[in-house]
Design the sequence.
């Protein structure tokens, strides 16, 4: 019977599908556990044996995170810091990436290599001097204490991504713009950038996620409650004698949501082949 | 609409590469000028200098009589069509065509009317709302043309605009481009490496080689009276048969390998300078159509070659033959791969479709001696006077 053609749902049973399913489960299970637990009654979390579904469904953990702790403030702080840093990274990254990809410049290669080195530099190594710097600037416990270092740390990678995108856009595109009478800035804005959108989104999402999850600098520079970001805030939930798992899980779910939304919205932009048809394909 | 003149234009790149050397060409108002040459001959560089995309190292460029060396591409009022079309992929066909007008802040109604006119000329009306990615190669090419004509520029520049099209479409578009150019009557500089395109499209053709001007003239003159071996070999397909030959001591005969061809008095009358080459080596050139097949006992100058290959085209036969004379290959006129396959003494003749011939035959060709070209062996220049 080995060679009988598989019909109905049987035809979905093959090595590839099963491997995909296992991989997906491997990734999704912890996420499911996170979400399920966040909706459990705080007292039911430690039950043995653990229940797979929240029963009854409870919003207590969520209200506790926002009311009992200052999760709302952390969320706001994270949004401000991450949006500002991402915006800066994209603006500077676009300009630098364009210059490195397109404009005649000396020392392009050296610059790129240095940028690459910076982007793999261990954060831990600079945290102490940066702390002193921030203290002297009186920047401790402020938004710029995170916005500026985040921009500096995540810019090199964004420059690389954007530069590679700009390199992929045919030069004739800009020359046509010049002949049509567009100024250089206009050329970049109306001709080059729209074609570099996938690169912009990729760099943007990467930067935003990196800022959103950054812990060490946030912990070191902004220790006061009013400037704490989400990762630090969640870590400092609870006190000496208890760990409020339910609250932590609920806060984590809320923290994951913006990233999920971002990826979901921009997924369709981050597709290859946006430039197809521009030149002979 | 404006004449364009290049006076002793030079281009030296930063790395010292001298791409264009002392190029002087005049393009009359409304003229269709083709720049042709093998790849790397500087034709595209020359065009880009006219466009203002490349600095001019020395020399004077005039557009409409006015020096344009330091003008921006915008000030020069030119339009350019690129080989890869360079359409903006995120704009519709209409937006692509109207982009330059939009930059000039033309009123919307006027802009739309002009875009519509251009689309009509090019048969693109129904595609105006499409994105370039949804168009075929020929349509994209037409959009690129539309973008150029809508601006009503003084000069059209085209950089191998047809080379991305398949062979059949290219022939169609050749006629189309010419038709459009005639219709709007704008001076045009058209760059191509394809000598067939150059011959069929140009009012006049400029032949370049390694940055140096070889000859500027109408296609027919280039074909009939090439100035040098390079032009002779480059223009025409199949290309001219060029052989080393030795002029007899009385200048009345020509030795091609082991064969001797009589030179009638008229040849010398037409080219008195040839007398100076008596007993010396010259290069002779014969177009394939100037070697008709003839019966063995015919009188008049003739050559006998061994048939190697026959291409029957229906209307005629193209016969590849060999003789024992040395075949001259003009450097750069044929690409290296092609040159490598050319055998010693190989030649091509076009003969009537009905002539019975098969591979391995010894075929007698009548030599149309009046049409024979003579070139100096060392300088490569034509011996005409």
Sequence:
């Amino acid at each position: 019977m080995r060679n009988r053609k598989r019909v109905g749902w049987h035809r979905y049973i093959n090595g590839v599908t099963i491997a995909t399913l296992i991989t997906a489960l491997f990734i999704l299970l912890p996420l499911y556990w996170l979400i399920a637990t966040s909706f459990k009654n705080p007292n039911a979390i430690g039950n043995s044996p653990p229940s797979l579904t929240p029963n009854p469904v409870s919003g207590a953990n969520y209200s506790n995170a926002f009311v009992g702790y200052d999760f709302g403030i952390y969320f706001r702080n994270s949004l401000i810091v991450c949006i500002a840093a991402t915006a800066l990274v994209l603006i500077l990254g676009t300009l630098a990436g364009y210059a490195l990809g397109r404009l005649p410049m000396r020392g392009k290669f050296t610059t790129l290599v240095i940028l690459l080195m910076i982007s793999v530099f261990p954060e831990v190594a600079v945290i102490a001097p940066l702390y002193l710097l921030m203290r002297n600037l009186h920047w401790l416990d402020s938004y710029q204490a995170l916005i500026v270092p985040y921009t500096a740390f995540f810019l090199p990678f964004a420059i690389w991504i954007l530069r590679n995108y700009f390199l992929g856009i045919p030069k004739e595109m800009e020359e046509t713009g010049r002949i049509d009478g567009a100024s250089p800035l206009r050329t970049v804005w109306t001709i080059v950038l729209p074609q570099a959108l996938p690169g912009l989104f990729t760099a943007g999402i990467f930067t935003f996620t990196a800022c959103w999850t950054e812990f060490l600098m946030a912990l070191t520079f902004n220790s006061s409650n009013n400037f704490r970001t989400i990762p630090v805030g969640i870590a400092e939930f609870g006190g000496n004698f208890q760990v409020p798992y339910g609250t932590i899980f609920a806060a984590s779910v809320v923290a994951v949501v913006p990233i999920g939304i971002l990826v979901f919205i921009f997924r369709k932009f981050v597709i290859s082949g946006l430039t197809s048809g521009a030149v002979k394909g | 609409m404006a004449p364009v003149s290049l006076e002793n234009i030079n281009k030296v790149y930063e790395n010292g590469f001298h791409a264009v050397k002392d190029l002087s060409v005049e393009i009359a108002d409304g003229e269709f000028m083709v720049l042709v040459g093998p790849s790397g001959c500087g034709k595209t560089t020359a065009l880009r200098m006219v466009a203002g995309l490349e600095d001019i190292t020395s020399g004077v460029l005039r557009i409409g009589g006015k020096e344009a060396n330091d003008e921006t591409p915008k000030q020069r009022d030119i339009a350019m069509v690129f080989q890869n079309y360079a359409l903006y992929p995120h704009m519709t066909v209409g937006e692509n065509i109207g982009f330059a007008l939009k930059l000039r802040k033309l009123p919307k109604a006027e802009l739309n009317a002009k875009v519509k006119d251009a689309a009509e000329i090019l048969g693109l009306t129904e595609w105006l709302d499409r994105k370039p990615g949804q168009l075929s190669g020929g349509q994209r090419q037409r959009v690129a043309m539309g973008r150029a004509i809508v601006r009503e520029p003084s000069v059209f520049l085209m950089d191998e605009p047809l080379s991305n099209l398949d062979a059949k479409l290219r022939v169609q578009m050749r006629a189309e481009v010419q038709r459009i150019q005639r219709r709007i009557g704008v001076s045009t500089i058209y760059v191509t490496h394809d000598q067939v395109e150059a011959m069929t499209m140009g009012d006049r053709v400029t032949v370049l080689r390694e940055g140096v001007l070889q000859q500027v003239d109408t296609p027919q003159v280039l074909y009939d009276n090439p100035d040098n071996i390079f032009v002779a070999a480059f223009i025409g397909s199949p290309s001219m048969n060029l052989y080393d030959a030795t002029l007899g001591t009385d200048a009345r005969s020509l030795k091609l390998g082991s064969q001797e061809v009589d030179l009638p008095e008229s040849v010398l009358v037409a080219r008195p300078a040839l007398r100076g080459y008596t007993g010396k080596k010259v290069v002779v050139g014969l177009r394939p159509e100037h070697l008709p097949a003839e019966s063995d006992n015919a009188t008049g100058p003739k050559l006998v070659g061994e048939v190697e290959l026959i291409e029957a085209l229906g209307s005629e036969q193209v016969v590849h033959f060999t003789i024992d004379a040395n075949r001259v290959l003009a450097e750069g006129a044929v690409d290296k791969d092609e040159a490598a396959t050319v055998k010693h003494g190989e030649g091509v003749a076009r003969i009537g479709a009905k002539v019975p011939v098969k591979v391995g035959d010894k075929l007698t060709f009548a030599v149309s001696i009046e049409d024979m070209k003579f070139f100096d062996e060392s300088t490569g220049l034509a011996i005409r006077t």
Q: What stands out?
A: The mean pLDDT of chain B is 90. Residues 167-184 of chain B form the longest helix (18 residues).
